[in-house]
């Protein structure tokens, strides 16, 4: 009898472990929770960033949100937060993660916090070009993000996840165009280096055509209850910079798209469902098609509605992964150098800064003079790169404003079936033009906190993320073939021919 009891005491824990790890009817596997917290500034006026010069707003056009998702398996718990903010520096993201860890136990290196990049949100980044951080809002934001993660964690329940990608080429275009060689422009330092600029104007004959391709994939990650009867969350991703509003704080098209998707998917029960639109690789992309005439009376509501219609049609066709789909995550932190000002640039900056005194910059030369002094004192930047794997889907997180070509290279080489890239995640380390784009100049290359990393930053970041994708998938990256570059060149040539035809038809 004693021998039987000893065997029973040994067997029961093993049976319990087996029941926990291999349950029947979807009782184990993936769990998910979602929540939204309001991050509209509680105190007005507040400083707004997103422009060259500092300004404040004392009006709220629509509410700002942090949309939070927590995914959990028996091995890993991951948090993803999409915040209606222009950009959030690494230290503020890290502060929020520490607070969330205290509330949930989720490791800080298993949390992803990304900005949408609305240009009409309160500033939490000091020296975001000519704008300081708003101290009241900076203190307010991190605890709210931690609160959102904790709420999503409390809402965990057995879930299933699916994904899809639909091409949306009519809603994002390259906004960086090449100047004619005889019409190069001067930079803020007085040198004639500007061979390409953002926003050339519609059908402007002074420009040749786009300086790069557009990443036009609209990606959707859907989260439902395990039985498929209730929608829990939707994480969308699209490479479009922002639409643009004015006169107050706004979540821009990201908020409007999210609200529309909540209405379309959850209907009256939308309070229990969270939809978010995240920023992709749109450093050189925006909604305007400068090869065509300006669209008259085209509104942000129309834009968000068109994109939501495309997304909802694709959403209804999503196929879901099995309950045992693998959830994994990797994070790498490393140091990149900034491009430091030479003695001549520092002397130029010192003269301007001395003359300006304590007032805020009022011109581009004053902005870049202040930036030169800051960069000289901050010669390096810590970069946080992450990759999340969910079955056949991968999500990369990059703390930069990333060109469309970089996003396309990541997608083309990823060993996962589908990959999408979230920009301005876990920090705000500025634009990372591919090395060849530095030659073309323009404000995404002028040394600043928002564009100051070394010229080889893009390939270093790309290589690190591809290594993470290989580790999580257990497979080698796909080769970047000649066909990939030929496809991009063919698209650019066709675009250029269309632009030239338009000019001929207009009699230019």
Summed up, what is this model?
The chain is α+β, with helices and mostly antiparallel strands. Helices cover 33% and strands 24% of the residues.
Your description of this structure?
It is built from eleven helices and 22 strands. It is of the alpha+beta class and 508 residues long. It has one domain. Strands 1, 4, 5, 6, 7, 12, 13, 14 and 16 form a nine-stranded mixed beta sheet that branches. A four-stranded mixed beta sheet has the order 17-18-19-21, covered by helices on one side. It has a three-stranded antiparallel beta sheet with strand order 10-9-11. Helix 2 (90-104) links the parallel strand 5 and strand 6. Residues 1-27 and 503-508 have low confidence and may be disordered.
What features would you highlight for this structure?
four-stranded mixed sheet, disordered C terminus, alpha+beta, 11 helices, 508 residues, 33% helix, globular
């Amino acid at each position: 009898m004693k021998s039987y009891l000893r065997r029973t005491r040994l067997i029961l824990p093993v049976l319990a472990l087996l029941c926990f790890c291999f349950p029947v009817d979807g009782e184990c596997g993936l769990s998910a929770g979602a929540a939204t917290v309001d991050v509209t500034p509680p105190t007005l006026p507040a400083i707004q960033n997103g422009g060259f010069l500092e300004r404040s707003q004392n009006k709220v056009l629509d509410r700002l949100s942090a949309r939070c998702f927590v995914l959990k398996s028996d091995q890993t718990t991951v948090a993803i937060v999409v915040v209606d903010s222009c950009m959030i520096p690494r230290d503020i993201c890290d502060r929020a993660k520490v607070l969330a860890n205290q509330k949930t136990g989720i490791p800080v290196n298993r949390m992803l916090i990304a900005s949408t990049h609305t240009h009409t949100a309160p500033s939490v980044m000091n020296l975001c070009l000519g704008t300081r951080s708003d101290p009241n809002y900076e203190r307010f934001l991190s605890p709210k993000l931690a609160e959102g993660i904790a709420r999503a964690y409390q809402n965990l329940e057995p879930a299933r996840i699916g994904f899809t990608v639909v091409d949306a080429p009519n809603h994002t275009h390259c906004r960086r165009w090449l100047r004619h060689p005889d019409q190069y422009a001067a930079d803020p330092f007085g040198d004639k280096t500007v061979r390409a600029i953002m926003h050339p104007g519609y059908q402007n004959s002074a420009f040749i055509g786009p300086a790069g391709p557009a990443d036009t994939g609209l990606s959707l990650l859907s989260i439902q209850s395990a039985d498929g009867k209730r929608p829990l969350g939707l994480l969308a991703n699209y490479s479009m910079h922002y639409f643009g509003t004015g006169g107050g704080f706004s979540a821009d098209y990201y908020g409007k798209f999210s609200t529309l998707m909540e209405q379309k998917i959850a209907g009256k029960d939308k309070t229990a469902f969270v939809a978010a639109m995240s920023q992709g690789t749109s450093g050189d992309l925006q909604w305007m098609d400068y090869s065509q005439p300006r669209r008259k009376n085209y509104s942000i509501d129309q834009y968000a509605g068109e994109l939501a219609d495309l997304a909802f049609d694709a959403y209804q066709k999503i196929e879901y992964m099995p309950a045992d789909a693998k959830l994994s995550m990797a994070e790498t932190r490393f140091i990149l150098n900034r491009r430091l000002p030479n003695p001549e640039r520092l002397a130029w900056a010192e003269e301007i800064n001395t003359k300006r005194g304590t007032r805020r910059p009022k011109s581009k030369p004053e902005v870049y003079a202040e930036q030169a002094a800051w960069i000289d004192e901050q010669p390096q930047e810590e970069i946080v790169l992450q990759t999340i794997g969910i079955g056949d889907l991968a999500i990369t997180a990059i703390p930069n404003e990333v060109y469309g070509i970089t996003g396309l290279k990541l997608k083309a080489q990823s060993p996962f079936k589908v990959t999408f890239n979230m920009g301005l995640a876990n920090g705000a380390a500025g634009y990372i033009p591919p090395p060849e784009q530095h030659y073309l100049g323009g404000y995404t290359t002028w040394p600043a906190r928002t564009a100051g990393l070394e010229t080889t930053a893009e390939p270093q970041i790309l290589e690190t993320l591809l290594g993470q994708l290989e580790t999580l998938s257990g497979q080698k990256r796909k080769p970047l073939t000649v066909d990939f570059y030929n496809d991009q060149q063919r698209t650019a040539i066709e675009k250029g021919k269309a632009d030239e035809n338009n000019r001929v038809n207009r009699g230019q």
